[in-house]
Each structure stands twice: as C-alpha cells, then as structure tokens.
Amino acid sequence: MTDYIEEQYIELEYDDIFNDWYELEGVRKIKELSRQLRTFFNYKTEVIRYRFRSNSISIENETTTKFLTQKQKVESLSHEFITLLKKVKKHGQTLEEEIRSLYYENDKSHIYKLSTLTEKLSILIHIFSEESIYDHPRFLKFIVVLVKNICLVKKCLHAQFSEFYGELEINYNNLEGELESLLEKTPSVKNKKPIKQLEGRLTS
What we know:
about 200 residues
C-alpha cells in the first residue's frame, strides 16, 4: 500500500515537473516570436527613416567601433551560414526541400549547426535592429536579405511555427524590394563588391 502511494506521488511530481517545463518552454517560444516581430518592425522603421532622411545628412560616413565590431561578427557568421547552406543544398532540389530532408535523413549534425547559427545570427541582428543604422543603407539591405533567408531556414526547422516564419519571410522580401527601390534612387550609394557578392550567395 505504501509503495502504491509513493508511486502515485512520484507520478504526480513528474507531471508537475513536466507541466512546469512545458509552461516555461511555451513562454520562451512566445518571447522568441515576439522578438522576431520587434526585429522586423525595427528594420521597417529604419527603412522609413532612410526614405524620409534629410538630404543634408551624410550617409555612411560615421561609424563607431561598436558598430564595426558588431558588423564584423554578423558578416563572419553570415559566411559560416552561407557555407553551411551550400553544403546542405544539392543539385535538383530547392534549399527549402533540402533543409526539410535533413529530418528524414536524421542528419542531426547539420540540423544542430543550422539551429545554432541561425540563433546566433538572430540575436546579433536583433541587437542591430535596436540601433540606428538607416544611415548605413547598404548594410541595412544586407541585413534584410540575410534575415529573409534565416526565416526560410527557421520555417523548415520549426514546423510548428512554419506559417509564422513563412509570413515573416514574405515581409522581409517586400522590405528588401522597398529598400532596393530607394537605393536605386540614390546614385551616391553604390553596392560594394563583398556585400553584393554575399547577397548574391544568399539569394542564389
């Protein structure tokens, strides 16, 4: 009888632990999705600020050590991200199909690497979104293209939130088009080769 009571108590204890964990995990996911939305609206605001900037403001002339350090981190991780995507992508299939196939093939190594890289990039990109970078339009465009591709990866990695990330990917794609249109109207802003090449790799 005592053993039976103890077993019931243990089962209830495990249930409580599981429920607590589930609640914490749910809160964490909600916070993550909320952060993703804030990031998008922050960059949307930066594009608007660039659109209505004063012509007297010198674009991309002022940089800080903090900005350059963060920028280098993003670009370094971006190269890793692109290299990994190229390893994943095979001839004859879309990138989205290949990422989804990682689960069918139980390729835990690539899934883990993609998850880790996208998370690191997402955090850095969010930090940048809290800064004023509209006066660095080329880098702003690079970030938008990068996040669009991160959304595609997250859409495949997180099936339960695929619709959310799919919509976010579309929003970033529209934002990219809006920014591209603005940059074309600004002759003084030209794409430097490294960033242009990186954008090409991301969108290919």
